[in-house]
Amino acid sequence: MLNTSAAAAPLRNAAPAAVASFHSSPQRPALSAEHQAIIKSTVPVLAEHGVAITSHFYKRMLNAHPEMRNIFNSAHQATGTQPAALAHAVWAYASNIDNLGALTAAVSRIGHKHASLGITPDQYPIVGEHLLASMKEVLGDAVNQPVIDAWAAAYQQLADIFIDFERGLYQQARQTAGGWVGWRKFRVARKVPESDEIISFYLEPVDGGALPPFKSGQYISVRVFVPELGVYQPRQYSLSDTDDGRHFRISVKKESAKGIAPAGQISNVLHENLPEGAELDVSNPFGDFTLDVEASGPVILISGGVGITPMLSMLGTLVEHAPQRPVVFVHAVRNAKVHAMKDYLSRIIKDNPQVSRAIFYGEVGESEQEGVDYDYEGRIELQNIKDKVLLPDANYYLCGPVPFMQTQQKNLEALGVRPERIHSEVFGAGVA
Fold first, then answer.
1. DSSP code string of 315-340
2. What is the pLDDT of residues 107-161, one digit of tens each?
3. Its Enzyme Commission number (predicted)?
4. Where are the domains of the chain?
5. pTM, whole model, 2 decimals?
6. Which of 58, 93, 124, 237 is catalytic?
7. How many Å apart are CA 155 and CA 134, to the nearest integer?
8. Homologous superfamily, domain 184-282
9. Which of 58, 129, 137, 166 is catalytic?
10. Domain 4-175 has CATH 1.10.490.10
11. I want to staple 12 with a disulfide (CB 3.0 to 4.6 A). Which of 116, 137, 167, 418 is the partner?
């Protein structure tokens, strides 16, 4: 078992036992009850030292395999958000090692992201080798051979789950007309400013081939070369238009530096260095935050800032293919200057009486008119508009900053909305 008194041991230069254990046999043993018990015993130490382990892991692995820097978000590495996200994922896996059903949603979300990045089965042993070695090097004598053996089996179990899940996504992409796996060259056909911060990019395949259909709410990964880093950097962006088979549209907010966080590396490249006609790498559409087109009840779309992007796709799909369903579009934005797609939403509401809105401005200028540009001043307060949003059999879709979505989820549940009717999209640091 894990000796917690030795958990703060200094870093070691190598962990050959860990590596040897992971690579010991192509046929890893199934995760036994004894393994599960050992994994459970490591949960308190993972809670305390998880970030130290994962921070060491990323440095170790990326030094040994610099080619994988083309996969990982360097900004999230610099701020520590990616090691923190991985530490939480490892802790959650250990905590639920005997109840993997609790991780179904997380596996789907991460698996879709992996697929959009083109993660391959041969990369999983690399991650496993360096993760186990990092546990040993950070925790030292607290990690004995039984712990290493248990975690080797546990990691292989998790790797197999992801590999199988992602294999299904890749197979589906290959079998879909116009679909592909990996990266495909696209051209920026048009750039359209939508606000002071957001530009829409209309992307068309360089090969002139067909595009696969996508579900409203899904995203693509785009990859561009960042000269100052010397690597490619991928980012995920929601598709902000409906599926027309001719182009993909993403609407990108230009991010600026905040505190210790670096300026948005990719958003700045897209805005400033990618003119019309330029090319970039694009993934097949993925993502499990999708509109339920089979349902018949009302739809409440709640977004904050650039979280409006998947909601625009959902709104377009609803008015085109399900005009009988009532839609309430709830959106919060700082002010009129950064309010994207305002005219588009106004046209939709004018032409579709089943669609209504509740627009919140944090700051109201002298020229803005209540009921024309916006409906409410301040933050979204669902309690104050419950007559608009608490509709029978409604489904709720949330997208925006994580604290925003957590607040809206909590407030919806406080108003009596069942959790299974609330769906949300989370972008940001992940395990890849």
1. HHHHHHH-TTS-EEEEEEES-GGG-T
2. 999 999 999 999 999 999 999 999 999 999 999 988 999 999 999 999 999 999 9
3. 1.14.12.17
4. 4-175, 184-282, 299-425
5. 0.89
6. 124
7. 13
8. Translation factors (2.40.30.10)
9. 166
10. yes
11. 137
